[in-house]
Each structure stands twice: as structure tokens, then as C-alpha cells.
Design a protein that fits this description.
The complex is a heterodimer. Chain A is mostly helical. Chain A has helices at residues 15-19, 61-69, 74-91, 97-124, 127-130, 146-170, 174-191, 202-223, 228-251, 264-295, 310-323, 330-355; strands at residues 4-9, 29-33, 45-52. Chain A has twelve helices and three strands, in the order βαββααααααααααα. In chain A, helix 3 runs parallel beside helix 12 (330-355), helix 4 packs parallel to helix 7 (174-191) and helix 10 runs antiparallel to helix 11 (310-323). Chain A starts with a strand and ends with a helix. Helices cover 70% and strands 1% of the residues of chain B. Chain B contains 16 helices and two strands. In chain B, strand 1 and strand 2 (81-82) form a beta hairpin. The two termini of chain B are 22 Å apart. Classes of the chains: A mainly alpha, B mainly alpha. Chains A and B meet through strand 3 and helix 12 of A and helix 7, helix 9 and helix 14 of B.
Amino acid sequence: MSTEFVTIAKTHKDFKNYMLGKVPGNINLISVPVKAFNAETEKDQVTFQLMNKDKVSAPKFSVLSTQLMRLKWLTLTLTPVICAFAYLEGLGFNFNLFNMALIAITILFAHASIFILNDFYDHLFGIDSLRPKGGTRVIQKAWLDASSVRTLGFIFLTLAVVIGVYLAYVYNWSLLVYGALGVSIGWAYSYFSKFKRFIGLNAFIINMFMGPFLVLGFSWGIAKYYNTSLLVMGLLFGLMAYLCIGFRHIENLYLSNKKLGTSIVEYLGFDKARLFLLALLFALPIIYIFLCVSINYQGFTPKTLLLFVPAMSYLLIVKSTYDLKSSMGSTIVNLRNLAAMLHVVTGLSLIMFFIIK
Amino acid sequence: MDIKYYSSRDFPSYLPKLNALYDDLFTGGKGFRSKLVQKVSSHLNLSAEKVKLLCQTIEFIHNASLLHDDLIDRSELRRSKPAAWLKYTPEYAVLAGDYLLARVMVNLSSNGNIKLIEYTANVISDLLEGEWIQDSLIFDWGVTLEQLSKVHNLKTSSLFKWCLRSPFIAGENYDERLHELLEEMGSILGALFQRSDDLLDFGIRNKEQKIVLSDLKSGYLNSFGSQIMKDLSSKEKEQFKTCQSLLEVKRIVGEDNFDKKVNNFDTDNQKLIDLYSHLLLEVCRIAKDEGALKENLSPLAHLMYWRTKP
């Protein structure tokens, strides 16, 4: 049996339904765009593949949700907060473990809602259709229709807000502003694509802001405390998170389409972007050493050795970036994972350092 | 209609070996792309002169790319004869390819259709971009099907897109929706053609008894190879890279698993054939085709992939 398709203009009355995965007059079918489509291009028609829901071999809903939530990247969101928590504990602050667990769950739900809605909006703007590996591919593989993905995103957002309100009541109401700002930044990152990239620096600016925001916001929200070490810690995590995204942008260079807006990597081109990321990598140990000196107030002790643990991951990523010859191929795919590993290893080393008395 | 798109009178006779090189190059070719141009043009009532210009243009571009490709890849044979760079010199192969591209620009400029010139120039640059990217993927065993699709879209599909679109541009039909659809159809034809070729390299439907595993042996992981590679263990990957025969490949992958991969690959590409058919219906509707265009273009996708008429 041959595959079914339909091509309709964007001005067609059913176009929005098709984009949401719903085929008018047939609830058994799900529609997915098959061709690169972007709201900012001049294309005025889209071809959809129509698939029978029963014939789509989607994984179980629990597996699907996990994929949509991008738990692989949860460490990038949670690690800075756990690190700040461990640091404050080390300074003598006492926290209610139940409420700490609720904070972690709120961050999990907020993280999930941001990424799920990112998937939805990237589908709507055609960005993930253009990039064969963009997003979780849950919508593109017709595992769930776009409308359901949107609903799931808002459910997680609601859960995050409900728990967030409780935590704000327990600690202080500024946590609500903190939460709202965090979600807004996440939303803005998706929506920047609609408003074109800000001189190609949106991802860099957002991550460099998000790092300190997560760390200082958490610290101020629950302990009404901040210091230079926390700020530097935030900058460190922000920079490492940006490196993951920067390498991803290099991976996507071969798909670059000026009408999608540009990241700084696309703006610079492969050769200069590689040098830019190398420069950021060389800035990383400077920030890290500054942090280590500021937190290592007891002088050199056996636990200070923990602070050297990230060195191997760091050297590996610097060498791989230096040797990078092309934006295509397997080396660049590994670099993003190496950057994520560096983030996790650094976070774990710091957490262990703070916990061990 | 058999259009003669090459004549020694088109090139200066005083340049030593140039015409001999072109005689070798143009004889033996199937002229598939120029036939495709003719199939599309038959619907459009273009003058014989314009059709000949289009046929000559596409064959010049295609053969220029072959001259350069063979040198870059160090291929020793082309159409069962020694490649130009080997029979003459590498320098002559490069210059002969450049000369063909220059003649394309001269001929199109004489015609005067600026949109056709612009589009052709873009296609040539896409071709070169694809060649550049492909060269960077040699001995990269982690390359994915998505990355290869980009290369194929530039290297292979760009010429098929040109074959479909240029007759309409030459006939001054610039309908955007029409050209979007033709662009997609060209992408599909190129992808299917390339993927079928990639299967041939693994002995699948290899009726012409071409040499197998030549891509793998020269360090290039083709589209089917990338599908095999992605599910292998590290040890199996190392063994796969150095395979010298199909027997070895099937021993590493498993005979049943190999057949399953072929079936999955075929199923995915059959969807592309179905999409092509759908898009062709849309094109015929917009172009107000009375049946000739559909009849001419309908079998192509199936032919490209399965190498038989439907």
C-alpha cells in the first residue's frame, strides 16, 4: 500500500490543524510535514505525510515522555543548583530535605516544559523539519501529534508553577519571580527564532546569564545569600552549557539557512567559529581556577585533589576541538557529548568537594 | 529524439588533445540527463534550438564534474575506459572540466535568459560544494545518512533539479509553487539514484556486475554502508572497515540482518517514490498538463531506485 500525502497552502483553512497533527475528518490519521518548512521562508505550501496512528510503532508513553523531557540534558539544569546547595550547606546553612527535593522536582518539571514546548515551537516554525536531528523527533516520527506535545508541555509547566507557588510561600515570594524569569528565558530561547537571532549571540548571552541566574537565584531564593564564588560558579556552568550548544551549532552548520536566523557560529563560519570555541575553552580554566581559589579556603587538603578531576575531560575536549577539520562527520558529534561530560564531571567534583568535610 | 549536444566544432582545434579528450568523454555516455530535459521540454513547446542548448548545458556540466571527480577520487576507469587524468594528464583533466563550465556560461549568455544563467550558476556552485563536503568525509566512519543526504542533494540531486526546472525557466514560467515542487522532485530523484548506486556497491540488484565494495575500499561510507555501520559494535566496525568481499560483510553483519537492512532501506526509499508520485500530480495540476508530462515523468522515481520500469 502506497504512502498518502497531501499538499496544501499555508492560507488553507485546515493548515493549522495539519500542523497540529490532526487530519480533518479522520481521527485515525496523523499528519507530519515531510519537507523543510519554515514560517520565515517564502514557501506558501507544505506537503504532509498522512499516517495511520495504529501503524505507527511508537514506544510506550513513559519512554516517549522521557525522550521529550530530554533527561539527558537535565544534568545541565540541575547540576548548578545542586552545586549551589552543596556549597551553602558547606558554609553552614541548613535546609529542609523535603523542600530541597521539591525544588529539584520543580526544576525537573520546568526543564521538561521548556524542552517539550521547544520541540513544539521548533516544529511549528519548521526548524526541526529542516534539521534531520533537531529536537527529539517525536513529532517528526509521528509518535505523538504536535497538539499532544503542546498539551504535555503546558501540563509540566502547570505542575512546576503549582509546586513553585508552595515553595515561594515557604521560603520567599521572590522565588516566583525567579521561576517566572527562568521559564521566560527558556521560552525566549525558542521564540528568538521568530524574532531573528540577536546579532547571532542569543544562545551565548542566554547561557552566560542562565548559569549565574540558576545559582544565584536559588541561593538568594532559599537562603537570602550571595557572594562572588556563587557568581563565578554560575558563570562557569553557563559557559560549559554554552559549549554544548556551540558544538551543536557547528554540527548544524551544513544545514545553515540564513532565513532561520543565525547563531554566532553560523555568523563566523566554521574556521573562525572553531577558534571562538577554542578561546572560550581557554577562558574556562581561568574561571575555574578563580572559583577553586575562592572556595578552597581551608588550603591544600586531600579533598583539594577532587578539583583536579575535570582536567582529563577538559584536555580531551581541547584536543578534539583543536583537531576538528570539518563541521561534518563523527568528530563533531562526539564534541557535544564531551562538553556535556565536562559539565557533569566538573559539577560532580565540586559537589563532592563541598560535601566532604 | 537523439540530440547531438557535442561537436568538435564547439571547441578550438588548435588546443592539443582537447578534442580527443572530449571525444573520449562524450562517447559511451548514456546522456540520461539530456533525455530527462527532453522529456520535460516536450510538454512545453520550446524551440529545438532551446532544447538543444539545455541538453548541451546539462551534459557539459555533468561531464565537467566527471572529469574533476575522477581526478579527485583517483578513479582509473570511466565508462570502461581509462579516465582522462590518467590517459592525458591531471592538468588537462582540470582544464578540460573548467573549459566545459566556461562554455556553458558563454552559451547561456548568448541565449540571454538571465534567470536561467543565475540558476545554472547556483547549481554549479552547489555541485562544487557537494564535492568539497564529500572529500572531507573520506575515512570518516561515523558519517550519518543525514549528512550524506546533504552531500547527495548538492552533488547528485542538483543536476536532476536543473533538468526538471530549466525547461520551465527557459520557457519563462517562473511560478514559485511549481518550482518548489520540481525542486523537491529533483531532490528525490537524486537521492534515489544515489542510494540505488550505493546498494549496487554492496551487490544488491547489481545486474551490470559492477565492482563491489569500491566505496568502502576507498574509505568512503556510502548511504547503505552508514545504515549498516550504525548498529555494529566497536569491534565489528573495525572489521567492517577492512572488508574486502561481500562474504566478509555478510559474515560480520549476519546474513539475515543484512537482508533485513536491505528491506528497511527499500521500504524507506519506496516512501520517497510515493512522495514523488504525489508531487508529480501537483506539478501536473499547476502546469495544466494534458497527460504528456505525467506520462514522461511518472516512471522515473521507480526507475532510478529499482533500475527497472514500474
